[in-house]
Amino acid sequence: MTPADLAARLSIPSGPLFFPVTAFGPDGAVGLDAYRAHVRQGVAAGAAAVFACCGTGEFHALTPEEFGTCVRAAVEESDGRVPVLAGAGYGTALAVRYARLAEAAGVDGLLAMPPYLVVAGQEGLLRHYREIAAATALPVVVYQRDNAVFTPATVVGLARTDGIVGLKDGLGDLDLMQRIVSAVRTGASGDFLYFNGLPTAEQTQLAYRAVGVPLYSSAVFCFAPEIALTFHRALEADDRATADRLLDGFYRPFVELRAQGRGYAVSLVKAGVRLRGLDVGEVRPPLHEPDDDHVKRLAQVIERGYALL
């Protein structure tokens, strides 16, 4: 899939963008059967794309060998029905290695994570992502968050780079995003994709759409695909009554619960998948499992969300 092909497939998605969790067994090893089932169920439920082994999929906790195995499984279970993108990160050399592993596994694109540990200047960040893009023929979406925050001029440079097709924002600075969208619109040719990548992105997507960011990741889709699909359709149809009902009755309570623990953007989602009947195991350190009381509250929030449908 060429960069233009991927951009076309993602520009008007038919459903939420699915970021599956990575399943682990009781011994801590990758639970490949459960992972395959999770991906298969998500695609069948209406995902527009699969982003394998990214943040929700605990990219940070996977060895290169585990990463390659999981990404290949995601490609096989998706079976060409939707695009599959994979994470790539750490320092430049390792990010290139992960990118090539993903390419060998047959993915359609990459989500380039922030570089490991260092806080780099704009020139160094631009060089880092350009080297990732040059390492394979895969289209690359760059993830802005933490220690990878870009000026509008740097994003224009990214947009002018062959193979870089989009920016996913996990920072939440809407003023900066508006300036980025404006700068790319006037300073780079061709289409450039923008994604809302904040945790539980539905909570902020109405605001992101207003500044020109139409795409968003959906961790909720992992454990409540019907709720995520209903919200997505409400956005596409400008059905504010349905969107507001779900925001008020499900998403806001879920976000408030997620704020009760560090790492809950991943571990609470994984708990939700288990509550819905698929044993994907626990998170790997340094993340930790949610408190029992928080899991009980999560079950209540999910039940309330489905009642709103």
What is this structure, in a nutshell?
The protein is an alpha/beta fold and 309 residues long. The chain is 50% helix and 11% strand. The radius of gyration is 18 Å and the shape is globular.
Structure explained in plain terms:
This protein is an alpha/beta fold and 309 residues long. The chain is 50% helix and 11% strand. It has an 8-stranded parallel beta barrel, surrounded by 6 helices. The radius of gyration is 18 Å and the shape is globular. The two termini are 36 Å apart.
Keywords, separated by commas or semicolons:
309 residues; alpha/beta; eight-stranded parallel β-barrel; 12 helices; globular
Flag low-confidence runs. none
* Major beta sheet summary: 8 strands, parallel, barrel
Category from helices, strands and their pairing: alpha/beta
Count of distinct strands: 8
Helicity level? 40-55%
Q: Give Rg in angstroms.
A: 18 Å
Lay out the secondary structure.
Blueprint: H1 3-11, E1 17-18, H2 32-45, E2 49-52, H3 64-78, E3 84-88, H4 92-105, E4 109-112, H5 122-135, E5 140-144, H6 152-159, E6 164-169, H7 174-187, E7 193-196, H8 205-210, E8 215-218, H9 225-236, H10 240-258, H11 264-275, H12 292-307
Parallel strand pairs: 1-2, 1-8, 2-3, 3-4, 4-5, 5-6, 6-7, 7-8
